[in-house]
UniProtKB/TrEMBL annotation:
UniProt domain CdaR GGDEF-like: residue ranges: 247-382
Protein source organism: Pseudonocardia acidicola
Database matches in InterPro entries: CdaR-like_regulators (IPR051448), CdaR_GGDEF (IPR041522), PucR_C-HTH_dom (IPR025736), PucR_C-HTH_sf (IPR042070)
Domain of life: Bacteria
Protein name: PucR family transcriptional regulator
Similarity field: Belongs to the CdaR family.
Residue stretches making up the PucR C-terminal helix-turn-helix domain: 437-494
Amino acid sequence: MDSLQALLDAPDLRLLLRRLAGPDSDAPVRRIALVEDLGRLGDLEEATLAVLTHAASQDAVSYRLDVALRTVGSRDISAVVLTDGREGIAPTAAALARRVSVAVLRTRADCDLAALLLALHRELAGGPEVALARIRAALRALEGGTADAATPEGLLRAATRALGAPVELRDPGPADIAAPVVVSDEIEAMVSAPRGDGHAEDAADAVVHLAAAAVARARAAARQAEDAPIRSRGELISEFVLARPDHGDRLLERMRAAGLTIDGWHTAILIDIENLPALAAEDELVSLRITDRVATLGLEAARATGGVWHRARIGSGLLLTRMERHDLGSRGGRDVAHAAAQILRRILSRLPEIALVCGVGSTHVGATGLRTTLAEARAALAAGHAGRRINVPTSFDEVGLQRTLIEWFASDSAREAVDSLLRPLDDLGPQKSRTALQTLRVYLDNQGSTTRAAAVLHLHRNAIAYRVRRIFELLDVDPEDPDAVLMLQLACRARSLG
């Protein structure tokens, strides 16, 4: 250690010494001297820190202090330490100290002079004891749990005080030592500090790594605290859009109480990870980590584009919903289209191996509007899957889908009617229900032709006839009733949107 400011910043000296006057520039310090007689100041070598005894400090008043400052100034002494506990010096002495480039320092009157000299010599020598002291001070500061140290900024300030050198979040330079801040297996920033020499480098290395780990923990804790209400609101959105109409109304007050602008204007973006099974290698925990990472990155990117955004999970897909109190008109649609592209770019920049399919709904108002824009986003997503539109957003308006059908199905009454009509098939269980609905839809879309339906499904026409007969019996629908058959076809098409 060869700098006066470095000495003053040292953890063991920071509370013992305070600057009273002197130049703004730093000065080298290569030796320490205890001075009992002001007349001996002229014998000191350059770059010395002169510590006056209590008696010598009491003599250094009025013109005697001025003479002492001129003497040490002519010898290029780095600083003079007054140990009599005085709070200041005369303005003329302070001006003289600046002119002769000598710092004037003070200690408390009760300062143990022997302990001060030992600490000064130890810091100047910069041996392993100093390095260990720096590391211990950093451990205490970074794990102390104080309110200031609870934030990344506070942690860096604590590390700086412990090391006696700036510890900062920045890219390292050639003369720096650095450690990464790793959150959720991703490097988010670098903590850097001056490298130093010898044991000082060892101390910097340890403190920088301790600070980086502490900053990572603080960021993770802050993210977790922020994530709790985000997840809570997301769960409410998921519960509402998936609820049966007679249950959805009960959720509205809870959504309003949670700060969701359910009565405002909504636009939905729905994102699927096309290659999730391959990325996760069929590991459920890995799959969960990937989907959580995509959700976090997606929400961050959405919020960066402006507006109020919420995230939710719909099955394995990510739902990002923009909720506004006022209608933004055509600009709102353009903003969300731009946001969708930005969201995909952000996710891909961090997870370049991922393959995303994205559907974007248009803007609708109120609780029913939330279901409508989600239905549109689902339909656009389905079109994106069908067209293999990977890592580009697909807009509902862009693909020209059947808006009337989607808006009808988004209404509470239509959803209730569809659920009621198809409930006997739903009761068969997921796999059998999907098979029955697919058979029924293909049969109805082919105007009741078992031959054409069999060709589409690669089955024998007798198998189609048997399945269709059983389905109509389960649903208690007369296949000769055109109104009932039309409603059944609408229900099948509406279900395919989800």
